[in-house]
Design a protein that fits this description.
Helix content is 62%, strand content 0%. The chain has 215 residues and is mainly α. The protein starts with a helix and ends with a helix.
Length: 215
């Protein structure tokens, strides 16, 4: 087993290499409320579908108050491209109602309060903290979970376990860019099936690749 110190060194090298390969994406709107709603809409769909649904929704209903007061059917039509729009419309409407009524249109910036919102798990809450408030956190989605285990940074079964272990082995100064870098890396090279080892910039650090080389 790799020691904690070695893991930190390995994590730093991987993230530094990925920073050389990818440009951190700047989101046009880092308003915490829009990040929150966009992340809810992003569940189980592709980025382009999320972008389209979010754009339509916020063009028609730009504030928590307006979304909370909108007919559910109208929200469903606007966010249809995000998939599972019946469930998501109700969730978006209820979250907006709580933000408007209980928080006076200001999204809370604490993990505990974010997790109290309906349908908000740790990944969504961490996305709000990172992309909405620029706070140190590690959102763990399918890409982060898969890549962290493939590389040998962690040995975990769930995203929640991955988040806890990454917080131990990744220096806090690198928490903010980690999700964005791993997502881009996971979409382009470290894909679920047939990862592109031949052009991978961090193959030398990857346990999965090292095992393949032995075969």
């Amino acid at each position: 087993m790799i020691s904690g110190v070695m893991k930190v060194s390995k994590a730093e090298k991987i993230i530094e290499c990925l920073q050389d390969e990818y440009t951190l994406r700047t989101f046009e709107d880092s308003d915490p409320f829009r990040v929150l709603i966009r992340t809810i809409l992003s569940q189980r769909t592709r980025d382009e579908n999320t972008d389209a649904a979010s754009a339509l929704l916020f063009a028609r209903y730009p504030t928590p108050k307006l979304i909370a007061g909108a007919p559910t059917e109208n929200i469903e039509i606007l966010i249809k491209k995000s998939g599972f729009y019946h469930v998501k419309a109700k969730r978006v409407k209820e979250v907006s109602r709580i933000i408007h009524h209980d928080y006076h249109d200001v999204v809370p910036d604490s993990m505990k309060e974010l997790l109290s919102l309906p349908g908000v798990g740790r990944k969504t809450a961490n996305c709000v903290l990172v992309y909405g408030f620029h706070k140190d956190a590690i959102p763990v989605d399918v890409h982060v979970h898969r890549i962290s285990n493939r590389m040998g940074l962690v040995n975990t079964k769930t995203p929640e376990e991955t988040e806890k272990e990454l917080m131990k082995v990744v220096p806090k100064k690198l928490w903010l860019p980690l999700n964005d870098l791993f997502v881009q890396f996971g979409q382009t090279i470290c894909r679920p099936l047939k990862p592109k080892h031949e052009i991978c910039p961090v193959a030398e650090f990857c346990d999965y690749y090292r095992e393949l080389e032995k075969e």
